[in-house]
Specification:
4-stranded antiparallel sheet, single chain, two-stranded antiparallel ribbon, alpha+beta, about 220 residues
Length: about 220
Amino acid sequence: MTLYNQLNDALVPHGFILRGGFRLENDEREKLGVDNETLVLIGNVGPAFFRHFSAERPDGPHPMDAWTRQVLSGFADIFGARALFPFEGPPYHPFQQWAQRCEPVYPSPIGPLIHPKFGLWHAYRGAFLFDSPIDLPAKQTVAPPCESCTDKPCLSACPAEAFANGNYDVPACTGHLKSPEGDDCMTLGCRARRACPIGQKYVYGPDQAHFHMQKFLANNG
């Protein structure tokens, strides 16, 4: 079994999965200030991650970041890697760019990266740097799912019409979330995101959706 598969098997029981990886270029190593050869991306899909987090949720203002750091740092020590996180910064690591190098994800019409299987119900939680090259799965070649989606229901489903002008109107979104009419989005998650037909089996449950909507509103409201 490859190191990559061993790491994935160790992380899955905690709600994480590996999302691919790549060899670092010389300029990337210089920017990161490291001598490592390989980056492996770690994320989550669907509701499994939130179930594990909820069972072990720590106290503090940023419990998900703290729990993620605790779990992944422990596995980094076990596997001889250096852990990086998207919430470290500024400056922040380019996780969205790394993701597009690792797997077939593409910017969706409403912003977040869309995966052809998981839709919009996934995230990136960390990355491991390894000193040596390791065997990595080949990146899949899949067409962007939004190209063949003619109706694009994500753009018309927003009750605040936050995407009506081709850009994301954050004040319109947050204003709606603060109103009584925004209860549906606050409790079940963004209606535009839920309208996407891709990855419906991975949709977040109400507790997970509400957690993320509260965090979004706290950061943008």
